[in-house]
């Protein structure tokens, strides 16, 4: 494994450890100052810290469990599940919400992130619109 791959894997794991440990200050050692979150449509470390804080307030027991992590040079792909949600069904009757994230590492820091999540969607509902129906909700109402 090359140094770049090891570095990318390590910073990826640190991000999830920081989330699970509620380490907002640690974000400055994980995310680049000009970090871009495509799902949040924001830039900067502060925007991520704010989003995480809101998530922790709404779901105090939330944890991200990394199921798979694939690294190719400066790109990392992660499949994970969310555990400990405040509104989860006792006994795990509903599947845990899943996330797919891809991020790009630059100089040992995460510079850019893309992602999809089933969080907030009813069980069995697709995370994306059906093929051929990509117009968006406003145009479907007409």
Terminal Cα separation, in Å? 54 Å
| Main β-sheet, spatial strand arrangement | 2-1-6-5-4-3
Q: What letter string, H or E per element, gives the SSE order? A: HEEHEEEEH
Largest sheet: 6 strands, mixed
| Whole-number mean pLDDT | 84
Shape, principal axes of CA atoms: globular
> Tally of extended strands?
6
Estimate the helix proportion, in percent: 25-40%
- The poorly predicted ranges are 126-142
Strand content: 25-35%
Structural class: alpha+beta
Radius of gyration: 16 Å
Number of helices: 3
Structure, described:
The chain starts with a helix and ends with a helix. Helices cover 25% and strands 32% of the residues. The protein is globular and about 40 Å long. Residues 126-142 have low confidence and may be disordered. It has a six-stranded mixed sheet with strand order 2-1-6-5-4-3, with helices on one face. The protein has three helices and six strands, in the order αββαββββα. The protein is α+β, with helices and mostly antiparallel strands and 142 residues long. A hairpin with a 4-residue loop joins strand 1 (31-37) and strand 2 (42-43). It has helices at residues 3-20, 45-58, 137-140, and strands at residues 31-37, 42-43, 63-72, 75-83, 98-106, 109-117.
Q: Short summary of the structure?
A:
This protein is an alpha+beta fold and 142 residues long. The protein has three helices and six strands.
